[in-house]
């Protein structure tokens, strides 16, 4: 019996990138992909990472071309956001109007929750091959869309 595909019908929200230095990466990607980045200042985030609650100092920026959205995160040791490369593709973020059920389905299909507390309606999930999937619901989608709309607005000017 095959397992149901928990990602069937979901909407791709963004491609997540991790970098060594967010200022350099923003400059390079802006020039290369004609992106207008929003954000990038360091803020403390209360997260559950690898099952442990912690405060993670994150620098995150967002950009959008319209058809494609990007999230850029500066590397932080001992978190899912690590890289030895200047910039690397990191994760795919999907929206689900039934995000809690989607998270449960991923866990039932051999994905391990690496960010988010058990039962959270969003989080990061990784399979044995290393594929990293982020699942978000309505509130986080609304939050991210504000950044993407600002980015597109800056590109138009």
Explain the overall architecture:
By secondary structure, this protein is an alpha+beta fold. The protein has one domain (11-156): 2,3-Dihydroxybiphenyl 1,2-Dioxygenase, domain 1, CATH 3.10.180.10. It is 26% helix and 39% strand. The chain has helices at residues 22-33, 99-108, 138-156; strands spanning 11-19, 38-49, 52-64, 69-74, 87-95, 112-115, 123-126, 132-136. Strands 2-3-4-1-5-8-7-6 form an eight-stranded mixed beta sheet. A hairpin with a 4-residue loop joins strand 3 and strand 4 (69-74). The model has no long low-confidence stretch (mean pLDDT 93).
In short:
The protein is an alpha+beta fold and 157 residues long. It contains three helices and eight strands; from the N terminus they run βαββββαβββα.
Overall residue-averaged pLDDT value: 93
Largest sheet: 8 strands, mixed
Question: Cα distance, first to last residue?
Answer: 54 Å
The general outline is globular
In helices, the fraction of residues equals: 25-40%
- Radius of gyration (Å): 16 Å
The CATH topology is given as: 2,3-Dihydroxybiphenyl 1,2-Dioxygenase, domain 1
- DSSP summary: helix tally: 3
Number of strands: 8
CATH superfamily: 2,3-Dihydroxybiphenyl 1,2-Dioxygenase, domain 1
Q: What is the level 1 CATH name?
A: Alpha Beta
Secondary-structure element order, as H and E? EHEEEEHEEEH
Beta strand %: 35-45%
Number of domains: 1
Structural class assignment: alpha+beta
Level-2 CATH architecture: Roll
Strand order of the largest sheet: 2-3-4-1-5-8-7-6
């Amino acid at each position: 019996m095959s397992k149901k595909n928990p990602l069937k019908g979901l909407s791709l929200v963004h491609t997540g990138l991790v970098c060594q230095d967010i200022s350099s990466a923003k400059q390079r990607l802006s020039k290369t992909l004609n992106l207008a980045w929003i954000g990038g200042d360091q803020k403390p985030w209360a997260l559950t990472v690898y099952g442990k609650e912690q405060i993670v100092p994150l620098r995150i920026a967002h950009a959008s071309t319209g058809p494609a959205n990007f999230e850029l995160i500066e590397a932080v040791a001992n978190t899912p956001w690590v890289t030895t490369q200047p910039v690397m593709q990191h994760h795919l973020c999907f929206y689900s109007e039934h995000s809690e059920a989607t998270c449960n389905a991923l866990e039932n299909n051999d994905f391990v929750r690496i960010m988010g507390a058990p039962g959270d309606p969003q989080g990061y999930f990784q399979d044995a091959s290393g594929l990293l999937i982020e699942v978000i619901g309505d509130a986080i989608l609304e939050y991210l869309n504000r950044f993407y709309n600002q980015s597109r607005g800056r590109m138009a000017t």
